[in-house]
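Supplementary Methods, section 5.1.

A reviewer requested that the exact input to the structure prediction be made available. We therefore reproduce it here, unchanged from the version used in the analyses.
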Amino acid sequence: MSLESDLALANRLAEAAGAAIRPFFRAAFSHEAKADASPVTEADRAAEAAMRRLLDAEAPRDGIIGEEYGTERPDASRQWVLDPIDGTVSFMAGRPIFGTLIALLQDGWPLLGIIDQPISGERWVGAAGEPTLFNGRPATTRTCRSLADATLATTGPQYFSDHDGTHFMALAAQTSHKRMVFGGDCYNYGLLASGHLDLVVEAGLKLHDFAALVPIVEGAGGTMCDWNGEPLNADSAKENGGHVIALGDPARLEDVIDGLACHHG
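The structure derived from this sequence is encoded cell-by-cell as follows.
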C-alpha cells in the first residue's frame, strides 16, 4: 500500500473510533478495573472493536496491536497499533483532552500516527518524512531558548516510580515550573506539535501510548526519544521502562537529558 492509502485508512479508523466514542461521552456507561488497576470503559472497547473490523476488512494481512483486545498476526512486518481512548480517566471525568491513537509500524518503527480528539474535532496526523498536519494545516513546534523558559507537561506524578519521579523533579526544577501542566495524556503531544508546549516527559508508557506520537512530533519539527536519547520503536517499552521525552526544540535535547540525569543513582 502507498503512504497515501495508509493515511486514508488511518483517518477512516479515527472516524470509526470517534463515532463509537461520542455517544458515551458525559453519558452513562459501564467501566471496570483492568489487571493493572487502570480503568476500561464500554467506549474503549467499542472504539477498538470498530477499528479492528475496518482493519480486518481493508488490511487483512497487517498485524494489529490493540490496548483492549491484544495482538493479531504478530509476525506481520506492518503492525497497526491502536489505543482507542488514551486518557480514559479524563474521558470518565468528562474532560475532552483524551484521544484515540492510531499508529502504523513498519518492521517495528513508527511510520505514521494520528491523535484524534473526537469531541472537539481536533486531529493531528503525522507520517515519516512528511509535515505534520493539524486539521489539514501544517503544525509546527516552537523554539525554546533555554530550559528555564520551557513549559513542561506530564500526565501526572502518580505515574512515576519514586526513582523516576526524583529524576523528573530534578528536570522540572530547571524549567518554568510555575507553568508546568499536569494531565492531558496524548493531548499534550498534540499541543507540543502545534507549538503550545515545549516538553513532555513520561515513564511507564506502553507501545500503544507512544507509537502514534513519534511521527506527529517529529513531523512538526520536534524530537522524541527515551531518557537516554535513543529513538523509540516497538522494543522501547520493554527495554527502557517506557521512558519518553517529547521536545519541541531539538536544540534543547542535551539539556533535558542532563537535567534528568543530574540525580542519577
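The two ends are 47 Å apart (CA to CA). These observations are discussed further in the main text.
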